[in-house]
Amino acid sequence: MKRTARVERVSRNMPARGACICLLPLFLGGCMQAQIQESRELETAITRDEAIVLLAKPGVEGSRTEEDFTDCVGADLAHSSAHLTVRDNNEFVDQMFPWFEPSTAPTRPEALTALFERPRVAARLAETGVRYVVWLGGATRKTDGGGSIACGAGPGGAGCIGFGWWEKESDYQATIWDLRQSRSAGTVSTNVTGTSALVGAIVPLPFIARVQGTACDRMANQLRTFLLGEDASGQPTGLAGAQQ
Asked: Are the beta carbons of 175 and 57 closer than 8 angstroms?
């Protein structure tokens, strides 16, 4: 069983970049566009005595997911539902040392089967109470920008003049592993692009698109519905287990 859903949410989206930039002064939050995609391979319905942990997906040096984004999604999940218990990622890695260190962590769900056949590993995992590991990958990057702004001071006072803008993209994917079945339960991805600006009109006026924060909110919300066994429309598919 595999089900794929695509959810698009657009916030302050303009028909073209030029129009977006020109109208930025009218929107204190800048100009943003967000997309969410979900692919489900297993039904999920986490119970009260089961926990989840969010870990940065292993990668080459310098390409791992930002720690603050992982912490942001984890905090949002922990406060979004009484049914979700989120374990601290650093404590989980320490408790499962050395099997989930970035350099030794399994990179495929199938590798968990052989790992958990070791009695010592299975006993450690049982102590954590973790049922699902959510691997987060991605980054926030500046993709474009232009304009200029100059500030100076003189006998008559100080001020700034000009216009500068920049575009950022937050692109993240979460892969959810069911440790009990040693399989991937599915993936959730979010992509948020936003254009910010700094307008020099005597006093610099910033209009900032909260790109990474929006990506965190979208990812946490979609992971919550996924883990509680809801489909893309918010209808339960296996929520009974979470309400036990």
From this structure: yes
47-56 in b/e form (b: 16+ CB < 10 A) is eeebbbbbbb
Look-up of token digits 């859903």: 5
24 dihedral zone (left: phi>0; alpha: psi -120 to 50; beta): alpha
Q: CA torsion sign, 23 to 27 to 32 to 34? A: negative
Distance between CA atoms of residues 67 and 22, nearest Å? 34
Q: In b/e form, how buried is each residue of 171-199, taking b as 16+ CB within 10 angstroms?
A: bbbbbbbbbeebbbbbbbbbbbbbbbbbb
On whether the CB atoms of residues 234 and 216 are closer than 8 A, the answer is no
Cβ atoms 168, 211 nearer than 8 A: yes
pLDDT higher than threshold 50 for residue 94? yes
Cα–Cα nearest to 14, from 25, 3, 23: 23
> Among 9, 13, 54, 51, which Cα is nearest to 30's?
13
**Cα distance between residue 198 and residue 207, in whole Å:** 6
Helix axes 67-80, 211-227, angle to 10 degrees: 50
Q: How far apart are CA 173 and CA 138, in angstroms?
A: 6
pLDDT, one tens digit per residue, over 113-151 is: 888 889 999 899 999 999 999 999 999 999 999 988 888
